[in-house]
């Protein structure tokens, strides 16, 4: 594999190597030139080193510092994909399948998954550390299981060897998942668990607060519900984005086939070594043809040539059918994996939707209560206005009799009582008439 990397990667320029060597060479005066400055680390703006947590196939982890362009060459990724992992910017959840890597941006989990390693942005977040620990545990548990299966006995060794043979040629068993799918599964599980825990915390806080609001409507409770609804909308948007991303991957078979990195790496290596063997065979064949004369006796007959041609065609067809079946099975495995976490994230979304509906129902109930109180106030105001109108009749009578004119009624001592009785009866009749009109028009329940 190291020889393959040396062939594929371009050699380093000699100027850079000489510059690095000269930067650490002491001068004649005994002082190191450019002391305190790492000449090899001089980069343009925006190309600074970043700390990454690397987890390999065996579960070993280490912290490395890699700059942006080295990471781009290492994983064969464009700059816009690495920009999605920048913690200084807020990007929606994304899962991208590339030629040699899978770019994952799911909440706190921002990593690059290849066929051999997982590169995770170093962070002090507990969910990032839990992701690393869980991935190491699963990878090491898988390695222990393989060792245990090999130590069972000769029959189990033959079964294990047949399983390895099947996995090597793409006929994967149901419990087998490549390294990139295991890492992706842990990332999906971490994101779904994080979102579900936030939804659960929101539910625990929301339901008592809403019940308190229905019993006591106050400015403080309304403000708390407003903040709660803002958090709910933001969390629902994030959960919806993760759900849409998983659904989009499930609907596109090409993207799912692109994410099978182990199979692509195996095919690339097999084709590379096949080309190397073919070149060696041709060189040997050419050497023989130059050293030995060509005779009609040594040339193969036409029947053998036809037979070899038929065998090569059949072999190529078998390889193509086997690769297509393997790709179909791999897509089905990834689809089953995505479907499982799609159900989980959909359950979280349904939980948030139910909470939003409960908040909407509470708001409707509060609006109904407020409308009822408003109607009662209107009814009371109507009754008060009617009573004021009746009392105003007494003011009209008093104003009439208070004018400066003389009549014989003023000389009668019992006339004042009759004026009060007649005015009171007239006011009662008028008030009763208004109440009957309100009941007839159904303006208030009487």
Q: Helices and strands, in N-to-C order?
A: HHEEHHEEEEHHHHHHHH
Which quaternary structure do these chains form?
Answer: single chain
The biggest beta sheet, please? 6 strands, antiparallel
The share of residues in extended strands comes to 5-15%
- Work out the number of β strands: 6
* Low confidence ranges: 1-46, 144-174, 286-300, 314-325
Topology:
Layout: H1 2-8, H2 14-23, E1 50-56, E2 61-66, H3 68-75, H4 79-83, E3 94-97, E4 102-106, E5 109-113, E6 117-121, H5 126-150, H6 154-168, H7 179-215, H8 219-251, H9 253-258, H10 261-291, H11 302-401, H12 415-440
Structural features:
six-stranded antiparallel β-sheet; 446 residues; alpha+beta
Description:
- This protein has 12 helices and 6 strands.
- The protein has 446 residues and is α+β, with helices and mostly antiparallel strands.
- The chain has a 6-stranded antiparallel sheet with strand order 2-1-6-5-4-3.
- The longest helix has 100 residues, at 302-401.
- It is rod-shaped, with a radius of gyration of 42 Å.
How would you summarize this macromolecular structure in one to three sentences?
68% of the residues lie in helices and 7% in strands.
């Amino acid at each position: 594999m190291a020889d393959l990397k040396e062939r594929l990667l371009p050699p380093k320029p000699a100027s850079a190597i000489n510059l690095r060597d000269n930067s650490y060479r002491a001068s004649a005066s005994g002082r190191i030139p450019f002391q305190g400055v790492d000449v090899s680390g001089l980069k343009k703006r925006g190309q600074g080193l970043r700390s990454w947590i690397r987890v390999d196939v065996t579960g070993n982890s280490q912290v490395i510092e890699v700059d942006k362009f080295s990471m781009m060459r290492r994983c064969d990724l464009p700059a816009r994909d690495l920009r999605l992992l920048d913690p200084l910017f807020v990007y929606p959840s994304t899962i991208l399948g590339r030629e040699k890597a899978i770019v994952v941006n799911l909440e706190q989990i921002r990593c690059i998954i290849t066929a051999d390693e997982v590169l995770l942005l170093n962070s002090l977040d507990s969910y990032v550390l839990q992701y690393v620990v869980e991935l190491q545990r699963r990878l090491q548990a898988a390695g222990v299981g393989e060792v245990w299966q090999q130590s069972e006995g000769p029959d189990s060794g033959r079964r294990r060897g047949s399983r390895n043979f099947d996995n090597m040629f793409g006929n994967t068993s149901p419990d087998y998942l490549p390294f990139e799918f295991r890492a992706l599964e842990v990332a999906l599980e971490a994101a779904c668990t994080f979102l579900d825990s936030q939804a659960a915390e929101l539910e625990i806080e929301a339901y008592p607060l809403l019940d308190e609001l229905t019993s006591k409507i106050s400015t403080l409770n309304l403000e708390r519900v407003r903040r709660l609804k803002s958090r709910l909308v933001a969390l629902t948007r994030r959960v919806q984005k993760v759900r849409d991303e998983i659904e989009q991957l499930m609907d596109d078979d090409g993207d799912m086939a692109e994410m099978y990195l182990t199979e692509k790496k195996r095919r690339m290596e097999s084709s590379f070594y096949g080309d190397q063997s073919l070149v060696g065979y041709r060189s040997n064949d050419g050497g023989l043809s130059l050293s030995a004369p060509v005779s009609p006796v040594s040339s193969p007959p036409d029947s053998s040539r036809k037979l070899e041609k038929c065998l090569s065609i059949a072999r190529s067809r078998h390889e193509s059918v086997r690769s297509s079946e393997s790709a179909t099975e791999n897509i089905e495995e990834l689809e089953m994996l995505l479907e499982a976490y799609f159900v989980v994230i959909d359950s979280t979304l349904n939980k948030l939707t139910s909470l939003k509906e409960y908040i909407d129902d509470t708001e409707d109930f509060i609006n109904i209560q407020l409308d009822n109180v408003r109607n009662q106030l209107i009814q009371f105001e109507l009754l008060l206005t009617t009573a004021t109108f009746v009392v105003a009749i007494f003011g009209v009578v008093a104003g009439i009799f208070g004018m400066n004119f003389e009549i014989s009624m003023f000389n009668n001592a019992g006339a004042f009582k009759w004026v009060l009785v007649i005015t009171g009866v007239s006011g009662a009749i008028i008030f009763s008439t208004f109440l009957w009109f309100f009941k007839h028009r159904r303006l208030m329940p009487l």
